[in-house]
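Fold it.
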Amino acid sequence: MRLARTLAIVAFACVLSAGTPGVARHAYAQDAGADPEAGSWSADPEPSQDLNSDPELNTAKPPLNVQGCWSGKVHDRAKGTGNISLILQQNGTVLEPHISGFQVFWNSSNFAEGPIVKGSVSSKGISFKGTATSKCTINASGTGNASKIKGTYSFRKECALAFKGGTFTITPGPC
């Protein structure tokens, strides 16, 4: 009797473990065996649960909010200390081209200004390329937070002969 009972349990377990192909079934601890990867799981998602709201799943930090006017000091290796102003139109991680702009001013004879033609914003700072003319471009990048950004810049093309590049510090404020 005991042997028949054991055989019946084993047969029933075999039927359960075989299952029907393509049909989900409950998993039992005895199904797993020694392989830690032999298990399975299934769950209905909660309608209000957003996978991106789990900090362990979403490790990307949002970009800084740099929208608006920024101004501060610039130090050029050739021209010395001057002023810098940026108008930044932000759309997520992008600085809107030709809406955003820059102005670097040392005196009435030494300045560069124009649109930002390409730029990006990260959780740590900004980077952009601007054009004063087709013969004068600026590349700049800085790190910081929503209240202060420090960085470096360099001019390219013909104006690189006059402006040698250097550092800047900007904070939100008047343009």
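The radius of gyration is 31 Å.
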